[in-house]
Amino acid sequence: MKVYLAAPMRGDRSALANVKKLLQALEERGYVVLTKHVADDVLDVEKGMTPREVFERDIRLLEEADVLVAEVSYPSLGVGFEIAYFLLRGKPVIALALRERLESVSAMIRGITWENFRLVAYSDVDEAIEKLDSMLPGSVDMQ
User: Fold this and answer.
1) The predicted structure's pLDDT at residue 140
2) Residue 5: alpha-carbon gap to chain centroid
3) Which of 2, 4, 20 lies closest to 78 in space, CA to CA?
4) For 14-47, what is each residue's pLDDT tens digit?
5) How far is residue 142's CA from residue 137's CA, in Å, rounded to a whole number?
6) Across the beta sheet with 32-33, what order do the strands follow?
7) 120 touches 94 (CB < 8 A)
8) 132-141, pLDDT tens digit by residue?
9) Quick one: CA dihedral 143, 60, 83, 126, positive or negative?
10) For the residues 93-107, what does the mean pLDDT come to?
11) pTM, to two decimals
12) Which of 8, 3, 9, 6 is nearest to 47 (CA)?
């Protein structure tokens, strides 16, 4: 199964350590993570990619992915776009937010009631991984 892991890139990257652990956990479980770059310390644009190249690559990866896992504890226009893009294609989205940041997550995201969307609060990354284990497509909770 191909996972699009989404996380803030240009804004507040306070959850980066959690994103790195999520990436590692997904790969250890045999998932193909298409967006390993979200866990990089150096941004793609700092490596020379143009915004257009980033957009085109990410759209291609969104189309290829089976499920989107988004870290939404800190605001990101890009992650919001990716979530909407995926949802409108009827694909499953799991949004993860640190419990202490849940009220800071966009009301638009917190208000999604579509069947292919789950917002999951977590206290630490181990809890997030445990919840992901039960929620990824194929499990009872996302069907």
Assistant:
1) 37
2) 4
3) 4
4) 788 999 999 999 999 889 999 999 998 878 777 8
5) 6
6) 32-33, 2-6, 67-71, 93-98, 117-122
7) yes
8) 999 986 443 4
9) positive
10) 96
11) 0.91
12) 9
Instruction: Confirm whether residue 106 is marked as ligand binding.
Output: yes
Known binder of ligand: residue 73?
Answer: no
> Can you spell out the DSSP letters for 60-114?
HHHHH-SEEEEE-SS--HHHHHHHHHHHHTT--EEEEEEGGGGGGS-HHHHT---
Give me the pLDDT at residue 139, please. Answer: 46
Cα–Cα distance for residue pair 63/89, rounded to 1 Å: 9
- 71-108 in b/e form (b: 16+ CB < 10 A) is bbbbebebbbebbebbbeeebbbbbbbbeeeeeebeee
CATH (residue range 2-124): 3.40.50.450
71 has binding-site annotation = no
Token readout for 20 is 């790195």
Residue that is written with structure tokens 């069907």 in the block: 143
Please provide the size of the chain in residues: 143
